[in-house]
Amino acid sequence: MLRKRHDLRTIAYLVITVGLFFYQWRYDGLFNPWLYPLTLFLSLSTAIISHNQNHVSMWRSRPLNLLTNYVIGIFYGHPAIGWVPTHNLNHHKLNNRDGDLSICPRWFKGNHLLSLLIYPTITSLAQTKAIREYISGLRTRNRRLYWEAVSEYVVFFGLMAVAFLVDWKKALFLLLIPQQVALFTIQSINFFQHVECDKTSEWNHSRNFTGPLVNALLFNNGFHTVHHEKPGVHWSELPNLHAQHAPKIGLECIEPSWPRWFARIYLVRPFRRLRPA
Questions:
Q1: How many CB atoms lie within 10 A of CB 28?
Q2: Is the entire prediction scored with pTM above 0.85?
Q3: Is 80 helix (H, G, I), strand (E, B) or coil?
Q4: What is the pLDDT of residues 15-46, one digit of tens each?
Q5: What is the largest CA-CA distance in the chain?
Q6: Contact (Cβ atoms closer than 8 angstroms) between residue 213 and residue 112
Q7: Which of 20, 159, 265, 275 has the fewest CB atoms within 10 Å, counting from its CB?
Q8: Beta-strand (E) ranges in the chain?
Q9: Residues 6+ apart with CB under 8 A from 264
Q10: Residue 185 burial (CB count, 10 A)
């Protein structure tokens, strides 16, 4: 019933995420500190799975997709339906131009660490109204989707409430903190992929991180230009699609290493600007 066999990897990530959560919950102590970095990483990977699921759903079965959304939501930190009005229907249409709820940078004109640090929180707050209005509108436009969306929120907040009632310390460290890390990081990734790019350009509107490791771990999320060009393409097809269109993309929008780009932009460049001419 899977649309693409490559999503066996997605299922494996989700199974490991759920299994690690229950292991940590039963761990004799607050959590296993050696495995906690993996908990945080898997929450981020679940955020990316949530993004992918809203572009190309994993299953041919609607109930299975909804069940998958329930699992995704509790580890990502927000019901998956929230991507539709803020990302699918807004960001992909406006692509960092005026009116984009994910536009960057915010408050500051420049790209620096402070601009990056405030972006995720401000952007999440800016998107809240659009999510609320979209779900409210579904009540008259699509009753079935409306109740599915409502069920995602009921399951999400219901499970969170139960977790905190059973053991608030475990819930804090195994759910809430990883969720916030995932939400902050996924917004930051959007910032990295668009800041200082040419939003008016056909091919240079997004930055691509083409390193094999980051793309192997995070479902080819680094190939961002072609994702915008063809958002309905499955994540497994993005490397080949990027290779086809890479000659059209400026070299300034293709970065082979995210860590080196981050260090150059946020740790080295500010000091270069301080040096006397």
A1: 5
A2: yes
A3: helix
A4: 999 999 999 999 999 999 999 999 999 999 99
A5: 64
A6: no
A7: 275
A8: 208-209, 254-255
A9: none
A10: 16
